[in-house]
Amino acid sequence: MLANLVFLNHVGLILCADKVKELISKCLQARDMAYCPYSRFPVAAAILTADGAIITGCNVENASYGLTVCAERTAIQRAVVEGYRQFTAIAVTCDIKDRFVGPCGACRQVLMEVRHTYLL
Ligand SMILES: [Zn+2]
């Protein structure tokens, strides 16, 4: 189910359909790995690097809610640790089927931090 999939891409960048399908597939797979015992709201993200690698993330909750890390930030942080600095797109999904849910403010801020690394 592709419900509520958010696909963010730099304006003007064209991605091949196969890469988009792969990005979405890995995003959906990562959602199954979410650690969300408190909210029971699994979220996943998959970020596409400039050289075609896909790094995934999922939400990782904590009993101290402020320590919870969203899927988008998990994916970006994993990518940075693995040496990636340039990104072309990110897909985000959760399990809400009939409504759009966008990234939170913290994730939007982190996405803004790496926006200059999107390829044109
Ligand atoms: Zn977030």
Automatic annotation (TrEMBL):
Catalytic EC class: hydrolase
Active site (record annotation): E72
Binding site for substrate: N59, V60, E61, N62, A63, S64, Y65
EC number: 3.5.4.5
Residue numbers binding Zn(2+): C70, C104, C107
Keyword annotations of the record: Hydrolase, Metal-binding, Signal, Zinc
Domain CMP/dCMP-type deaminase: 18-120
Swiss-Prot/TrEMBL cofactor(s): Zn(2+)
Domain of life per record: Eukaryota
Gene3D superfamilies: Cytidine Deaminase, domain 2
InterPro entries cross-referenced by the UniProt entry: APOBEC/CMP_deaminase_Zn-bd, CMP_dCMP_dom, Cyt/Deoxycyt_deaminase, Cyt_deam_tetra, Cytidine_deaminase-like
Signal peptide: 1-16
One GO location term (cellular component): cytosol
GO BP, one annotated term: nucleobase-containing small molecule metabolic process
Reaction catalyzed: cytidine + H2O + H(+) = uridine + NH4(+); 2'-deoxycytidine + H2O + H(+) = 2'-deoxyuridine + NH4(+)
GO MF terms held by the record: cytidine deaminase activity; identical protein binding; zinc ion binding
NCBIfam families: cyt_deam_tetra, PRK05578.1
Function: This enzyme scavenges exogenous and endogenous cytidine and 2'-deoxycytidine for UMP synthesis.
Family: Belongs to the cytidine and deoxycytidylate deaminase family.
UniProt protein name: Cytidine deaminase
